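Here is one chain, start to finish.
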Amino acid sequence: MHTPKGIHSSVQDYHEEAGSRNSVSWLVSHGLIPRTRPQRIIALASFINMMGSGVFMVSAALFYTRIVGLSVARVGLGMGIAALVGLCAGIPVGHVADRRGPRETYRLTLAAQAIAMASLVLVRSFGFFVLVVTATQLAISASSAARAPLVRGFGGPELTRYRAYLRSLVNLAGCLGGIAAGLAIQLNTREAYLALVLVNALSYAVCAVIVSWLPALPPVVKPAGVTGRWIALKDKAYIAVSLLDGMMWIQGAVLVFAVPLWIVDHTSAPRWLVGATVVLNTAMVVALQVRASRGIDSSPAAVAAIRRAGVAFGIGMGLIAAAARVPAWAAAVLLAAGVAVHTVGELWHAAGSLELRVRLAPAHAQGQYSGVFGFGRGLGNVVAPTVLGLLCITWGAAGWLVMGGVFVAIGLVLPIAGRWAERTRPATGPAAPVPSPGSAPAVSA
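Its structure:
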């Protein structure tokens, strides 16, 4: 029987469309892509953003010293100044995102990041270097605070799982960016380093375009009885949680700062283990972050996860400390085991930290509260090199044990602050229910 061409074409189109839907459904059901279009847009923007950042982070120190011509001491001083000043942007920009809409605010911060990053190619002096990297850090801090309401607004009922998915995704992106940077570093030319800077700037610009594809997310109206503008700065319990969590985030610098120096200068393990530990950590985060976040969907579950994380960090630091003064094979085994246990702690801590950041913040002030939480984490990142350098590198094995004890102590104290914050939530209004996937709040300010 002959089928008219038009009918055959329609049938073929139908089957192709059905096959496409089935393919997407399979990817969604296996957790490879998010369920809704806004979630996929945020994921794509996050991936490109972090891939560009990964390209630059690996090469930043070499760019500043070899191309700009600054000393290591001046680079450290300038980055420290920039990091401290950058902490100030999150809270006010987060407040703007709450009141004016997070999509528009986030898009502006991405554009600011693109301009600031591209300006690095013009740096020729220490003063201009400090000015540009400070502008960059301000834009990064502002961008993080503006992004938080978007993730919560479009995260859907499985917000915990979606946040974990995003963390796995950006870790993968950062790893791929680092590999790409390694190829350029191998060329070791001015043009190659400048290209890495511009690629990162371009990634921010592309993200700004991608974010514009999101539907508008109107601000959430303030609950009746809530007065004042800077409510996050008056929330003592939330500030306490943020500062304690920020100190716990020193753990993020252990594997990228302390472990490489420890392996090379204090153990007999082969130097290639430095790269292997990074690969191990990244692979575990990409593969296990979603699984590790299951069930961490309340404040009690979050603080329990952070308590477990503190214990894991303590054990991991002890194993790493034991790698000194043992044969190379034993050192390699202890270091690998220590990094693996430390990464398990990182998975728990990240899941608990992200949950507290959102759970304890009122729905109408997610950006402002995210800025406060980001301040705590940023402060931890600022002091991490000094603290880890003194304890883990200068003090040696004993310092690793002391630092491990600090992590355990924070894991025990933070739940107390978390319970205090839970008791005081009615004063600022509890977080509103999460919107359904892909939807936007119906009420605007």
